[in-house]
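User: quick one, sequence for these C-alpha cells?
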C-alpha cells in the first residue's frame, strides 16, 4: 500500500504529537482563527512509560472524567431522552453498546457522546448501511466517538478520519484504545491505491488535497 505509514495506534499518536506539537504545526495554513485559539489551550503530554495526558478544548467534554462532569452529563441526557423524536431515539441495545465503547476509549458517556449516538441512530434509520466492505468518511470527529461507533456496529467498514493534526491525535489515541488490534494507518504523501484490510485511516487536513480521486475513494 503506497502513501500510507503503517504503524500501531500508539506509534501514530506519537507521530502526530511529534509533527503537530513538538516540531511545529504544518496545518497552520488551513486552521481557522477559532481553532488556532482552541489549540492554544490544548495540552498533550506523551512521556515514555507514562500514561498519555490529553486535554482538548472546543470539541466536546467526553475527556473530563470528574464526578461533577459525569453527574451533569447524566442529568442532561435524562432531560432529553423523553422528548426525542423516534428516529433520533437510540435503542436500549445501542445505548449499552455506546456506553461500553466509551469506556473502552477511556471517555465518559457525556452529553456530547449522547448526541453522537442520536445522530448515529438517525443515520441508521434514514440510510441503511450497505452489506460488505464499505468506506466511511468522518470529518471533524472530535474524540473519534462517532467513527468508533460506526466501526463497532458495521465492522466491515474502513473509517477515514480527516481533521486538523492536533485534534486528529485525540482520535488516533482514543480509537487505538478501543481497537488495539485493528489496522490503523496514517495517510502519507503519495497516492493510496487501496485500503483493503485497513480499519482506520487518519488524514491530516492539509493532506486532503493529496487524497486519491476515483475508484474506491470517490465521494
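Assistant:
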Amino acid at each position: 500500500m503506497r502513501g500510507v505509514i503503517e504503524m500501531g495506534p500508539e506509534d501514530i499518536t506519537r507521530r502526530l504529537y511529534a509533527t503537530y506539537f513538538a516540531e511545529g504545526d504544518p496545518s497552520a495554513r488551513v486552521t481557522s482563527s477559532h481553532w488556532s485559539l482552541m489549540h492554544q489551550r490544548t495540552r498533550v503530554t506523551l512521556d515514555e512509560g507514562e500514561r498519555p495526558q490529553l486535554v482538548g478544548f472546543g470539541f466536546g467534554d467526553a475527556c473530563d472524567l470528574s464526578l461533577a462532569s459525569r453527574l451533569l452529563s447524566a442529568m442532561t441526557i435524562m432531560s432529553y431522552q423523553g422528548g426525542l423524536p423516534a428516529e433520533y431515539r437510540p435503542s436500549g441495545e445501542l445505548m449499552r453498546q455506546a456506553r461500553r465503547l466509551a469506556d473502552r476509549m477511556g471517555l465518559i458517556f457525556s452529553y456530547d457522546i449522547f448526541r453522537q449516538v442520536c445522530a448515529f441512530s438517525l443515520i441508521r434509520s434514514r440510510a441503511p448501511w450497505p452489506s460488505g466492505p464499505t468506506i466511511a468518511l468522518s470529518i471533524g470527529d472530535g474524540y473519534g466517538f462517532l467513527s468508533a461507533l460506526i466501526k463497532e456496529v458495521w465492522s466491515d467498514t474502513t473509517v477515514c478520519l480527516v481533521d486538523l493534526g492536533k485534534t486528529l491525535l485525540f482520535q488516533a489515541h482514543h480509537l487505538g484504545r478501543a481497537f488495539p488490534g485493528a489496522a490503523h494507518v496514517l495517510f502519507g504523501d503519495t497516492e493510496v491505491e487501496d485500503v483493503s484490510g485497513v480499519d482506520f485511516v487518519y488524514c491530516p487536513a492539509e493532506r486532503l488535497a493529496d487524497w486519491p480521486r476515483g475508484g474506491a475513494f470517490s465521494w
